Amino acid sequence: MSARADHAVAIPTLHHYIGGEAVTPADGAFGDVYNPATGEVAARVPMADAATTVSAIEAASSAFHAWANLPPLRRARVMFRFRDLLEKNAEQIARLISAEHGKLHDDALGEVTRGLEVVEFACGIPQLMKGEFTENVGTRIDSWSLRQPVGVCAGITPFNFPAMVPMWMFPVAIACGNTFVLKPSEKTPSAALFVADLLQQAGLPPGVFNVVNGGREAVDVLLTDHRVGAVSFVGSTPVAEHIYSTASAHGKRVQALGGAKNHMVVMPDADMDLASTALMGAAYGSAGERCMAISAAVAVGDAGDRLMAKLEPMVRDLKVGPSTDESAEMGPLVTGEHLGRVSAYVDQGVTEGAELVVDGRDIAVPDHEGGFFLGGCLFDHVRPEMRIYREEIFGPVLVVLRVDDLEHALALVNAHEFGNGTAIFTGDGRAARRYTHGVEAGMVGINVPIPVPMAFHSFGGWKRSLFGALHVHGPDGVRFYTRLKTVTSRWPDQGPAEAEFTMPTMK
Questions:
Q1: What confidence tens digit (pLDDT) does each residue in 224-270 have?
Q2: CA distance 254 to 219
Q3: What is the dotted CATH code of the domain comprising 5-258+465-486?
Q4: Where are the domains of the chain?
Q5: From start to end of 404-474, where are the E strands?
Q6: Contact 373, 323 (CB under 8 A)
Q7: Is pTM, for the whole model, over 0.90?
Q8: Among 123, 176, 291, 377, the one annotated catalytic
Q9: CB-based contacts of 338: which residues, under 8 Å, 6+ apart?
Q10: Catalytic residue at 377?
Q11: What is the rounded distance in angstroms from the CA atom of residue 422 to the CA atom of residue 291?
Q12: Cα dihedral angle (243, 249, 253, 259), rounded to 10 degrees?
């Protein structure tokens, strides 16, 4: 614990949300939640042990059958009321996000909006869960398919989008008739607890949505308990791989979204003003703590010098400050530990011989000396073998590589282990088509730096950016949170008079 004993009384204590009730343990482990702009402890969060996690699963399991048996229209009406409450409370949720994550208020509001769009998608669940019917697949034999809920579902979500990423998961899962246990990041827990209260106000029955805060002990229970039928995860690739292998081994369906090194290819014919401003927002927005952040720019041909000429002064002039500063363009990193990790990558890049064009390590934010601030860092002439290129940094660090032509750019991007998102900036339709067709990534933008799909499409990457067959939200979300059942029907007076010992065929 880093909180001083003489301040402990003034620090609020958070809770779990289980079976419709706030649950605050009298003892056990607690973690610190920081204000990233000051470096001070802002709250204490209980760290769920195995027994607490099991109690959340039991609450979800007990609530499942009644909730699943409600007509989809009635479940949709809860989602409609929840959607209205989200809109009315968007400012408050954004303030909670900014206070614990550090991102700017407008950025946090944008996060809430993108989550709300998934709720709007889930409001259409009666249409989305409609099955298919075929009359007379054989003589007087009908066949139809239908989708039914999986049961208890679990979501394990990261610190960087404490509202949006959970809302990629639970609105679709709940609307489909499942119950849900959310394990948010212990670094940014308050948004999930606030949302739980809104769901209760919307009329969601107790136990349908539960929140347990904690670390690996809680996660391991969610991955192994036989009552959990599906697990959704967003985070780093090593953890995603562990989530996938462990939960799959225990018979669960899994979607585990991992790390990223999102490339933006800048062609010689690109509008350099557009490309450089797009890179600024995509690389340094939310302090680079986005799974869709552009962290590697690939300059093709003579684009490199022209791009850097525009980019360097913009990075130097990047205004860094707390989320309460309306003039700030970038806030702090989430914790001191993460600040140290990202700074170590910058040190590593210098050691490896990359050209550090802009160094943000010595930034000072007036009146916020204890905050977890790092200025924008920009590397040029980075080589593919360098760690700052190969690994996900998850901070305000942009690396620029240079290649001769589009084919070399495409080969470079496809050789990387991650295949989350990518973009190409060009005015040439042939180059854009060649890139979008040939690139091995799940989401592609043409002159759009962060191609996050809308809620009615699905979000997910390729290669080691995704473990599992299905993406999150959109049509894949409905497929993931439901099981397909096909019924073939013939009434007794229409059947054969004798036993049939051959493989049945439709006649």
A1: 999 999 999 999 999 999 999 999 999 999 999 999 999 999 999 99
A2: 14
A3: 3.40.605.10
A4: 5-258+465-486, 262-446
A5: 418-419, 421-425, 443-446, 462-463, 466-467
A6: no
A7: yes
A8: 291
A9: 372, 394, 395
A10: no
A11: 11
A12: 20
